[in-house]
Design a protein that fits this description.
With 124 residues, the protein is mainly alpha-helical. 61% of the residues lie in helices and 0% in strands. It is built from five helices and no strands. Helix 1 runs antiparallel to helix 4 and helix 3 packs across helix 4. The longest helix is centred in the middle third of the chain and has 20 residues.
Amino acid sequence: MTLEPGRIFRDAWIAGVKKHFPGEPKASYVTPWEDTPEWERSSAASVCTQVAEFVEVSAGNTSKLTREQKGRFVALCWIAQIYKHIPDPKPAYVADWQELPDWQRETDADIFEAIEAAGASAVR
């Protein structure tokens, strides 16, 4: 079964937030795909595609990357999407890896691994 690329990303994001966020997350963090703003859906699809292509062009050798390396890749791709869609983003929206809270770093790594596990064919 093929899912929308952004949906794979969003489902992994929500699962990661529920698993790693300390306490009760903001409602916007766990908004279902259908209620997610269009710019976020588009961004999720773009990042998902970037990760899938990265996995594919490395012939699956992304499996040798650390969780931190995987998470950093997702975070950097997401920052580029923020700049694409938000002219003057809040600094927290474009924070570098070391500035992100642990829960977000873990969630970004989970996103990479979910896309990696789904395979390139599921993303197209």
